[in-house]
């Protein structure tokens, strides 16, 4: 009887730990609709720093400051995040491995992009742009080259850090 209870407890704990691992795999942060993980669009510098997930790269000098997600450092003269003194965290640019809730990532095809966002439009600069489906205050912008997504990001519509 004791052996059967022990075996049942072991099997139950394996099932629970397996379910927990599966749930963790499914809850991997996505880029959008409100940010990436704990780092959210609109956050102040203080709020973003409090997440422990960002590192400052460029001072703002009265304007937007440049930051990176700690897990996704960018090259020397580049940043992954802009924080505006006026609107807060204004934009997050994708690193390899990130994806939108609709499954678009660097390397997705133009066909996959258009299937995920049927109303996406090309702007006058050649970028594909669409309002984030569940966050009307933000938009996605995608660079497509040779029929593949090569860069993308999410930004507040009111961002004042770049054109």
Distance between the termini: 71 Å
Question: Given the structure, what is the number of helices?
Answer: 3
Q: Helical content, roughly?
A: 10-25%
Strand content range:
25-35%
Notes on the structure:
- It is a single chain.
- The chain is an alpha+beta fold.
- Helix content is 23%, strand content 31%.
- The protein has three helices and ten strands, in the order αββαββββαββββ.
- The strands form two sheets. Strands 3-4-5-6-10-9-8-7 form an eight-stranded antiparallel beta sheet. A two-stranded antiparallel sheet has the order 1-2.
- The N and C termini lie far apart (71 Å).
How is this structure best summarized?
The chain has 163 residues and is an alpha+beta fold. Helix content is 23%, strand content 31%.
Observed structural traits:
163 residues; alpha+beta; two-stranded antiparallel ribbon; 3 helices; disordered N terminus
What's the helix and strand layout?
Layout: H1 2-26, E1 35-36, E2 39-40, H2 45-50, E3 54-58, E4 65-69, E5 81-84, E6 88-93, H3 110-116, E7 121-122, E8 128-132, E9 135-145, E10 148-156
Antiparallel strand pairs: 1-2, 3-4, 4-5, 5-6, 6-10, 7-8, 8-9, 9-10
